[in-house]
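Whiteboard transcription, Tuesday session. T.W. wrote the structure tokens on the left side:
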């Protein structure tokens, strides 16, 4: 019969290690202890990092998993904390080595830049057209600043979805956002505030 005290203590320590890794990681990490039955049955350690691109997801396939069969749990329970560390290290290494995605505009040969710029401008104008009504229809419990921030958050979620669909990495998305903000601030500083129509702070 398994020594329940020793197994329980090992599980508790493994869970503490899992929590430690979740807290220290700059990435969204999931570390779980699972009971698995049937093929490959046993107490299973599973670690996973939320992928920011397809290459990171692919890099983690089949990794970050450790299993102690039920028949060996009593004898090997003490290994659990170390298995948590090993599983986490394995996926962190895999994600770090995953090739960074590149923006289509940087890797696609013969890109139609006129169409690219035209679509970007059309998207900008269309978004502006719906922003003001959204702000005007905001609940009275929100200030103008709060409503604008909420609209910004919604737009960023939509932009993030587009960047994922384009196969872009976070660094590229951040670079494009910073460039867009710099361009608009430049217009404001040059006294071209009217070009930011419709004015949302009117």
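and on the right, the sequence the group agreed on:
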């Amino acid at each position: 019969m398994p020594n329940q005290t020793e197994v329980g203590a090992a599980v508790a320590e493994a869970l503490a290690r899992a929590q430690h890794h979740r807290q220290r990681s700059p990435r969204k990490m999931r570390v779980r202890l699972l009971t698995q039955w049937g093929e490959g049955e046993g107490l299973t350690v599973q670690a996973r990092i939320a992928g920011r691109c397809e290459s990171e997801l692919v890099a983690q396939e089949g990794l970050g998993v450790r299993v102690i069969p039920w028949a060996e749990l009593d004898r090997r329970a003490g290994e659990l904390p170390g298995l948590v560390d090993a599983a986490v290290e394995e996926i962190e290494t895999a994600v770090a080595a995953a090739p960074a995605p590149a923006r289509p505009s940087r890797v696609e040969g013969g890109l139609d830049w006129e169409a690219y710029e035209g679509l970007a401008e059309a998207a900008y104008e269309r978004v502006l057209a719906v922003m003001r009504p959204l702000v005007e229809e905001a609940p009275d419990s929100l200030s103008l600043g709060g409503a604008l921030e909420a609209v910004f958050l919604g737009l960023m979620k939509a932009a993030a979805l587009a960047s994922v669909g384009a196969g872009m990495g976070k660094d590229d998305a951040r670079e494009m956002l910073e460039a867009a903000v710099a361009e608009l601030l430049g217009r404001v500083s040059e006294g071209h505030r009217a070009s930011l129509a419709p004015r949302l702070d009117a």
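Someone added at the bottom: Residues 113-136 form the longest helix (24 residues).
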